[in-house]
Queue: 2 jobs
Job 1
Amino acid sequence: MLAGDMLKRKARYFLLILVLCVFSSCFQIIEEINVANNGSGTVNLTVNLSASKTKVASLMLLDSVNGYKVPSKQTIQKEMEEAVVYLRSAPGISNVKKTLDFENYIATISFAFKNIANINNVNQNVLKKMKIKAINNSSYSFNPETGIFQRRYTHTKEALIEYNKLKPEVKNVFKEASYTSIYRFEKPVESSVNPLAKVSKTKKAVMLNVGIMGLINGKTNITNQISLAK
Amino acid sequence: MNYYFKSAIAGSFLLGSIAVNAQDLSRKIPADALAVATLRGGNLTELMSVSEFNQSFLGKKMLEGLAKDHIADFPGMEDFGFNLSSDFFYYNQSSDSVSYNCFLLPVKDAAKIDLFFSKRGKIFTVKDQVRSYFNVDSTEAVHWNAEMLLSVIPIEKSAYFKRPEVRERLGLSTEEESNLYAPENANDAVMADSAAVDVTEAMEVVDEQEELVVAKPVKQKKSTAVKHRSKKTKLKGKKSAGKNSKKKVGKKNLTKKKVALPKEETAEMEVSTSEEAPATFESDMSSDTVVVDTAYADNNDNSNSPFFSDLRIKRAIMAKWTAKMSADFFAGKNQGSILNNADFNKSVDHKAEATIWISGLEKLTSAYLPLDYFKGVNFMGGYGAANAKLFLEDQSIRMSSAMTFSEDMGNVLRKVHKRKLNKKFMKYVNEDQMIGYMAYAMDTKAYLQEYPKLISKIYGSVYSDEIGMATDLFSLLLDEEAIGKVIKGDGIFVFNGLSQKEVAYKSYDYNEDNFETKEVMKTKKETLPDFLMMISTEDTRLMDKLIAYGVKKELLKNHNNYYEVSIPKSPMALYFTIKDGVIFLTTNGQEIQQIVNNTFTAKLSAKHKKALLGNNYAAYFSPKKLSGKIPAETLGRLTQVEKTNKTLSALGDIYIRSFPMKGNTFAAEISMDIPRGQKNALKYLMSITEDLQK
């Protein structure tokens, strides 16, 4: 999952924050990818904690909660900046931008790519850098010739194992969290294989909106193959 | 005046009832009982007649459960042969090896109890007017005569049976062996339970055979109770160790009878004639044996393992002890009566519907906890006798409890509880607005000074050096005097209800055309408590420093004579001020202004004032006032909301309070008013149980 991989480094901190939202907290992860006919495109990632901002704000006043260290505003900014620097140097990636809204606790990163395979490289490198042995369980491909866009995803048990280690009150944070992916194309979509995905009225966009829990426990599969009109 | 008049009437009535109540079985309770529970039938039947109870929901349920298929023979609670207007007791008696749970009930008509037992297919024997019934493995015994019924359930103390010298003496396997064969998740208690249940169920099925079975052994065996008993129970143990096959049960029944018989020796049989008995007995036995054995082979290969053979031996020995204990009871061989115990007598309250008395927590814990594990650390040291009483009155349900401490502990508690609640608090409570409160008063300084002493009492005997150093360090680091001035130790929390505040947040919408994301503002409601908290303080220097720091860091907003705590992005406002040696903390901006401007309108009834100022701990909660104030969103479905509100408004006001220390006794009480229109507490409780079933 691009969102997960991309932000893993930062996500550590975001997760920490989430972890603290023990009440009616919920969060959103939105991944938008626009793919041009020639295979280039843009990515926009959003992590939105706005619905839990009361709790996040209170918790950020503390050093640590439930045994998790609460990152300071500065730490979050610094880590985001490092991610941007890394992306800028990555092959095929350009126009990297970030926004950090501490009023509503919304973070976004956007960038352009020459080829969608560039995203996969980024993922792998980020994982390597973080010394995470996880199998790269997510990848994208687009063939301009055939007009087939593929999103491969396999669930790893590690996610569930890690989740099960969390305290019950922390687990609650994930119960109402959602993950949304939107892929937009220049040509109309002829078919989209994943039954959970919706095709827009213009037929040029595919959206998939699922709960994070389903991804953690492996009940939801977000693999998709989208065929575009010739 | 009226009060004295009432007390006089109540007093004379009580004296009368004591004199009339000839069937007071409490004198039969042995002096060494560790705990005694009393249920006063007389008081209960006065609140609700037996016929009324029979018609009630609970009454019907109880009758069904007790009489089972013989409801025609036992149409009402009075038909079971007990004296319902007398006292019922439970008591616990312990030795180093067994804990006996004893139920002592007053009998009105023994013939009815006889009938009950025989209708239920439970065979008993009679000797000297005393009827005796034993369950299958003799681990439960019931004896009764025209005056009383005693039911004993012994429970082994595993620590005793783990002692190597005991294991050797009793012929038990070594502990390792026994553990090796212990069934997973099974402990003795579970085993015993399942066996017992099994048996009673099956007994109804094999009614007839049982009666016959009994007859024969009586004729055959004539020897001392003790010898027989152990032999019998061994036999039974083998059976009961098996899994629950009905056939096995038949066999258990047989053995049970044999166990029962030694008691009688010269008993006349109640049931069945001896002529027809032997034949049936034989056939019954043989058929049983066959089936039992197959059952054995089928599903219980472990039955001869050390674990089960130990179980058999232990049960046999406990059955022996239990029989001796109950025989002594009826023979009047008990060493002294509990009525000679002054502390027990003090706890007797004829007005209470139910009481529980515990001879001393220290004694009780040492009787139950394997103290060798704690290596001499005495957690319950200093705790003496305790009691709890339930009063069902015309206008309230009241439960009081009291505990007596040792002189040392009493001293500490008296010092800690010397403080009273600050009277100034009363000026800021309005009972029309509040839903409840919680107030406490203790002396922080005394607490900090005495706490180390308490700790050294608990751990002192073992870790005296370490504890001594730690407590010295504690005193060195903490300036008890100074802390005691900052927070004196009394405070009150007034709960005024719940409120909802809207919170806006950002989210995203997607248009249907191309799933373009659009930022939108949404709102959700957060439920927040409304409260006022007051704490006494003397030395505000530390507080002042904290305030100055807070203001500098912009965590506090200064509104001249009060402060607002700024919790970023929080919908909850929090205000505080320090005035006249009181720290005020509230969620209500208007309220804090009234407090600083001296315009707060206080309203507090004498009842609340007395509870607050007269006790170290006082709490009040009005469920009725809360009903309708819980935001629907918090509860979810509408039906849930209605149900909650209905339940809340059906409950009366609840009060909790502690009383000032009397000598070394600390007492507390919880009570609930009964809603208007209810005749008395018992009837009210009955109506609630009925409502809950709907």
Job 2
Amino acid sequence: MQTLTNRAKPVDRRPMTVLEKLYLPAIAKGMGITLKHFFKKKVTIQYPEEKRPFSPVFRGLHILNRDEEGRERCTACGLCAVACPAEAITMEAAERMEGEENLYREEKYAAKYEINMLRCIFCGLCEEACPKDAIYLSETFAPANFKREGFIYGKNDLLIPDPKKEPEQYQKALGSRVKKS
Amino acid sequence: MSITQILFWFLTVMAIGSALMVITSRNPVYSVLFLIATFFAISGHYILLNAQFLAIVNLIVYAGAIMVLFLFVIMLMNLNTETEPQKNKWLKFAGTIAGGCLLLVMVAALRDADTKTTTALMKEGDIGLVQNLGKTLFKEYVVPFEISSVLFLSAMVGAVVLGKKD
Amino acid sequence: MINLAIDLAFILEKLVLIAVIIVISLLVALYTTFGERKVAGYIQDRYGPNRAGPGGIFQPFADGIKLFMKEDVIPSSSNRFLFILGPGIAMTMAMLTSAVIPWGNEITIAGRTISLQIADINIGILYVFGVVSMGVYGIMIGGWASNNKFSLLAALRGASQMISYELAMGLSIIALLMLTGSLSLKTIVDQQSTGWWNFFYQPLGFLIFLICAFAECNRTPFDLPEAESELNQGYHQEYSSMKLGFYLFAEYVNMFISSALMSTLYFGGYDIPFVNDASMGQSIGTNWLAVLQAVSLFAKVGFFLFFFMWVRWTIPRFRYDQLMKLGWKGLIPLALFNMVITGLIVLIKENGWPF
């Protein structure tokens, strides 16, 4: 039969010799292999102290963005909710009142914005659908929780810190990816 | 009362008590366990006689090997009171007579033992030590010893033959 | 009138010695569990437990506390008394063996010479065999009392395995005893500290003893009583809390004792290699010599413990028929052959070349 890779080896079906039947050389060989591994460099990453770098295309928890003046970008158009294949996003729109210009960028804003992290599949389609650059997927992932309700993230969980009031935390929340672009 | 005597009485009570429990306990597994306890007590007596070799061989062979096999069989058979066969009344009668005869023989045999009293060797005696025992076995009693080993061999062959039969 | 004629100092000395040795063997067993997990980790390219204390050094205590805190379940259909007796026997029998192993030479404290051996009885090795053969009962009683067919099968397996390998072990020891001419472990060590170690006279015997020691301790590759793919958890299926802990712990104590026994019988015991112990004792004093000797013994024991673990994480488990075949058709004839050859050589050495 024509082999595909020429790497196939026929199985050796000869009866074992006396030395092979003793098994001791084979056992010694195996012990040698395990001993070699004993001194090898360990592949473990000690998690809380050491963290693996994320890939540049990693899609983690969502974040609701603000503009440079600290106003929320989201206008509650609902495109993200439509785009979401898992139907994880719900929102309620509200009209911007007089005197709230420093809070919301557009005249309409999301009064309630919830993402169910148990439903979310972190596909990033909401990010692509958003016309206002209001939603991004960050480099963190959802922490464990004791209750299912804990995985429904509201607006205060999702909003990025205000760049004016808390600039340090804002920079931290931006992560390494934004800086590069 | 020295410590040897205390140990002697303790071991004696233990040996007789557990020997009685062997025949009176309802559960066969308990019987085997009490039999093991009896062997332990007897081994203790051997140690008091400074026959360490005998004591430990008693433990290894009887308590360690044979009793394990007993336990094996009993555990696998899963004996309990429900599966116990109804005993014939006549069988009990015959058992009593046989036991009585055995008692008579024992009494007759032990009656003379009193005349040649020699106090049991306590601590000092060295008959039970390996060297002396080995020398006695292989010099004075070499023929009976070898014959008994041939007996064992034939028993083993017999067991193999029975096992092969299916 | 009870008049107890007992040397109180003697009893006190022995009690202290027993306590020390039991504490040491428990501690060693405790840390063997930790070492096992560490070795397993390192062999599998990971670190093993390293969170409790620096380098995970308190891990065994954490494990112990966890075992103690767990709910202690006694199955309602089990035989209560025997169910509790089983782990007790396993643990006691594992501890008893340490009585005859010489842990070092004599030390002198306040003018009293104390031998670092609980009992130098003249049948040392046989005592070890006797106690080891008792160890089967812990497994058998526990397995039967659980009233669970898997436990029972595992117990029967364990018992038959131990009985089978005891034979080969005994036969391999007989060849050694022909050379030493004594059953006392102390004498055997003394002979080795002046001459060569017994390993060089009895390599085949040592190999057989080693394999049988693995089987007696129910260690991989012979851990059939715990073959979880066939018997769920094995004979301790129904056990929980510290009763389970006792079974697991007894295994490690057994490992420690058999390592000590192997070092004593074949690797010179407390003899310090490449050093003349007697002359060294004169230069640094007998007490320091005894300490060094104990350290030397523990180094050997440590190596064997590591070897036990190394094998466990290398070799897969035997099948039951393979186990029996190896024991009865492999090791016993080999041990008999070794015995005959040794006997022949001893005979020739004693009588000169007769031909």
